[in-house]
Amino acid sequence: MDIVTSCTTQRTYQQLLDIWQHCLTGDRFTEPQEGVVDELSRFFGLPPEKVRWICEHSAEIITEEWLKTGQSTPDEIYRFYQAQTYWLFGTLRWHANQDQPYAVKIANALQHLPPGHHLDFGCGAGTASLFFNALGWQSSLADVSESAIDFVRWRFEHRGIHGIFYNFETEQLPPNTYDLITAFDVMVHISDIPAVLRRLQESLKPNGYLVFNVDSRKPAAMTQWHLYDAHYPVIRHIRRSGFRQMPKILPFYCYQKINRSRLNASAVGIFDYLRHNQFQTAIFGSARRLLFLTKKTLSRIAPGIHEDP
């Protein structure tokens, strides 16, 4: 199967999904789960049965490891990701089981962009990079975890694909290089959001795109390494860092690099601090819950009330 096609090709969502699945299965397997187990087995030198068990129990294993050492501080989270490899098992299992993969949704929404240079920020297991590479994009990958970088480099090499790899903690990204930066489930683990946004903005070409989600979680046993329980600690910094907001690709935010004067950046920053904060989040959260309960009650009283006549 030749999955790299013309840069101007418009693909259906199903075609994009087939390409994503082929990045996991290759030409050796028919099911993504089989391909994932095979890659993890070969890289870590473990029998497939052991790999399957770790994939299924990775969340519990990681939580147990965190409870031994974690203190929920940025430094502890950084060291945690440096030391752990089990999360690669859970991540790839998730990639194999996704009904609507993140990268597929983004690629489908941005088909008007000709393939250029893509940075997979917080690359993790690197499947998104393999996918965009298959669509014709040049691939750069950045992460703070050397174990992730080693694993993704191995995945690229075994496919004969060229990629450029950066340790985001110790290496600088090249300026004015990328047409698209994606960050999946990454922002919620970053303690200094403004500093990271400046680095990403500088590495984008003029009018380049930054697409990301904020995987905020309420505090719980398995979410202690998530720094934020709401979106506003991230969102309120974006525009003043040199971006303008584009239409969302739900559940993702989409921004485009622009030049802002210091005065304009300050004004935008003040405005966004006023509209993205704990109070606003609580008010709108309560309003959404009230609307949901109202619709649910009305549906019970008058079934079919939301149907068109």
Please characterize this protein's 3D structure.
This protein has about 300 residues and is an alpha/beta fold. The chain is about 50% helix and about 15% strand. The chain has helices spanning about 15-25, 30-45, 50-70, 75-85, 85-95, 100-110, 125-135, 145-160, 195-205, 230-235, 260-275, 280-300, and strands at about 115-120, 140-145, 165, 180-185, 205-210, 245-250, 250-255. Strand 6 and strand 7 (about 250-255) form a beta hairpin. Helix 1 (about 15-25) packs antiparallel against helix 6, helix 1 crosses helix 7 and helix 2 runs antiparallel to helix 5 (about 85-95). It is globular.
Characteristic key phrases:
single chain; alpha/beta; seven-stranded mixed beta sheet; disordered N terminus; 309 residues
Number of separate helices = 12
Order of helices and strands: HHHHHHEHEHEEHEHEEHH
Secondary-structure content class: alpha/beta
In spatial order, strands of the major sheet run 3-2-1-4-5-7-6
How many strand elements? 7
Rg value? 21 Å
**Percentage of residues assigned to helices:** 40-55%
- Outline the low-pLDDT stretches: 1-8, 301-309
Beta-strand content bin: 5-15%
Q: What about the largest sheet? A: 7 strands, mixed
Average pLDDT:
86
* Dominant shape: globular
Distance between the termini: 47 Å
Structure described in brief:
This protein is α/β, with parallel strands linked by helices. It has helices at residues 13-25, 32-44, 48-69, 74-83, 86-97, 102-109, 127-134, 146-159, 193-203, 232-235, 262-275, 278-301, and strands at 117-121, 138-143, 164-167, 178-183, 204-212, 243-249, 252-257.
